[in-house]
Design a protein that fits this description.
By secondary structure, this protein is of the alpha+beta class. The protein has a five-stranded mixed beta barrel. Strands 8-7-9 form a three-stranded antiparallel β-sheet. Helices cover 39% and strands 23% of the residues. The protein contains eight helices and nine strands. α2 runs antiparallel to α3, α2 packs antiparallel against α7 and α4 packs parallel to α6. A hairpin with a 3-residue loop joins β7 and β8.
Amino acid sequence: MSTDGRTLLQPAYVLHRKPYRDTSLLLEAFSPEYGRIGLVARGARSRRSTLQALLQPFQPLLLSWSGRGELHTLTAAEADGTATKPHGDALINGFYVNELLMRLLPRDDPHPGLYVSYRQALSRLSQGDDHEWSLRLFERDLLQELGYGLQLTHEGGSAHPLRPERHYCYHAEYGPQAVVGESPDCLAVSGATLLALATGEPAGESCRREAKRLMRAILGHYLGPRPLASRALFQARHAYSKRTEPTVDDEE
């Protein structure tokens, strides 16, 4: 709730943080009622402050702040339950989800439904559920909430239902079109993949690969040319893992 220019005890997550001046933190937080907000946590990095340990990504929080404009001043913070922090690859996937929100969600644009999807995604990642499919469902929900929802049940511009056995060219602006002849610029995807995304039901390996390629292309359309830092981090982690894997001689 807000009173006299102050906002009190709002559920929120920290999406990103960085040092600010000598002892403060600059935060980007996500709240269901206020959307993405910029906050200055004054003195949070001082030796006496307990805020630096609390203001971490993936920790559910209750935040209070004051002020108007682009940056608000954090006035209080407390934990709102136990953190569901993912680990390993799931942690990088969590940073990927946060980065998508940072890049695509405008400030001060509330999306309560997206906040629910975000919490669900963090829960699935922390519990070790199907990470890849969890990401696809969050990407689907994010696009829907931002007004870029995918057409997943019918051909674009028509009432023709998608058929699982058919292949379609997916166009970001108007959806899937049945493949007719050669089409070198076609983003090909099966009806089965689109219908799996629509229902959220786990899909087979072929559908998963198609769904990943589809989402990367559609998100890239809105993200622009600047690469995602979390994607580079994931690639670096796996490149390092391959370099440090024992050879047959090492195992012997």
